[in-house]
Amino acid sequence: MTTALRLPAPDLTGLARVTERLAATATAHDRTGAFPADGIRATHEAGLLTATVAGRHGGPGLGVAATARILHALGEGDPSVALIAAMSLGVHHRQAVRPHWPEELYEQVLADSAQRPVLLNHVRVEPDLGSPARGGLPATVARRTAGGWSLTGRKRFATGVEGLDWLLVWATTDELAPRVGTFAVPAAAPGIEITHRWDHLGLRASGSHDIALHDVEIPDGNVVDIAAHGPGAEQDNRAGAAFHLPLAALYLGVARAAQRYFHRFAHDRIPANLGHPVARTDRFRRAAGEIALRLDSAEQLVFGGAERVDAADDTYTPERALGARVLADRHSVEAVGLAVRLLGNPGLSRDNPLERHFRDVQCAPVHAPQEDTALLTIGGRALEDIG
Predict the structure, then answer these.
(1) What is the CATH number of domain 241-386?
(2) 310 neighbors 63 (Cβ within 8 angstroms)
(3) Hey, what CATH topology would domain 123-229 get?
(4) In a designed cystine with 78, which of 26, 64, 300, 319 is the match (CB 3.0 to 4.6 A)?
(5) Cα angle: 33, vertex 72, 159; to 5 degrees
């Protein structure tokens, strides 16, 4: 597909300003759980929501490394905004790597994106199935109609659903020879119901609600992809491994925000029995060194791996990308946990941003494929290589 449309090029030199803008409202969004519309607008205005749209579609065509930098900056400011943005960036990235959308539909999405924030997300997890990363096929059913399809089913963790424009719903057809496909559903379509309000420990403003689809009708032209029923239609955890690096970068951004607060506390806290900041004590200096070591090494893994993906380095396998994400997530969680332990009660106080960072970073290892599934993939490849 070719288009005369030109989407704005993101200014990566201005990411710090976007971080500051998101950080100004992050606490309020966390408290209320309200959809962070102002943060999404700021992200759109900076040209970040369409950063991964391919050049052939009129987009900037940024790669995995630049996307990791973007999500790192957004994660520092407000990880709920970052996660919602990551879903759209991931959809555009997949289209850039392997064109599979109907041309007319994708042109519509991009034309709208040039004017306002347009949010997209794959809606795949189900109450009974759980994450498709562990195998299995959807219970959500797509039934043939005179002009297209009617979808019925239940989905979990539909991140950003209150602000989405398009839900990419994973469903099984009711044909004699069933197929499995992704169906683009306008978020405003009749029959979509939020069935459970997101009330989570972290990323509280991400709006990852559960939804039900009640005979939601879409035209034939809204089928994004469809394949024969069977193992080949299940999620391939290796295929999208590279884009897990930007997701890991998002949570490294959270950990960097926590680190900044830890440093500020260490310099400002002057106990009466010491007479000088705790930053001068061996205990805090060792902890600061451990945190820096974990985050610096994790960022080298993530950003270095992302650059190798962009360079089409054949030696950088999907297993290496999965492994980088596993280690980065571990380091992010452990680094923030260490900062909280050093602060004690102040670190767990809700008037302290460190408490919010601690809650948010716990979401890092939850994303599919989770650590055990990733390790199975990595271990299987390792044993094949040895064999």
Answers:
(1) 1.20.140.10
(2) yes
(3) Butyryl-CoA Dehydrogenase, subunit A; domain 2 (2.40.110)
(4) 26
(5) 35
Q: What is the pLDDT of residues 104-147, one digit of tens each?
A: 999 999 999 999 999 999 999 999 886 776 667 899 999 999 99
The reported pTM is: 0.95
Does CATH number 1.10.540.10 belong to domain 12-117?
A: yes
Question: In this structure, are residues 28 and 15 in contact, taking their beta carbons and an 8 Å threshold?
Answer: no
What is the SS3 assignment for the chain? CCCCCCCCCCCHHHHHHHHHHHHHHHHHHHHHCCCCHHHHHHHHHCCCCCCCCCHHHCCCCCCHHHHHHHHHHHHHHCHHHHHHHHHHHHHHHHHHHCCCCCHHHHHHHHHHHCCCCCCEEEECCECCCECHHHCCCCCCEEEECCCEEEEEEEEEEECCHHHCCEEEEEEEECCCCCEEEEEEEECCCCCEEEEECCCCCCCHHHCCEEEEEEEEEEEHHHEEEEEECCHHHCCCCCCCHHHHHHHHHHHHHHHHHHHHHHHHHHHHCCCCCCCCCHHHCHHHHHHHHHHHHHHHHHHHHHHHHHHHHHCCCCCCCHHHHHHHHHHHHHHHHHHHHHHHHHHCHHHHCCCCHHHHHHHHHCCHHHCCCCHHHHHHHHHHHHHHHHC
- The domain limits of the chain are 12-117, 123-229, 241-386
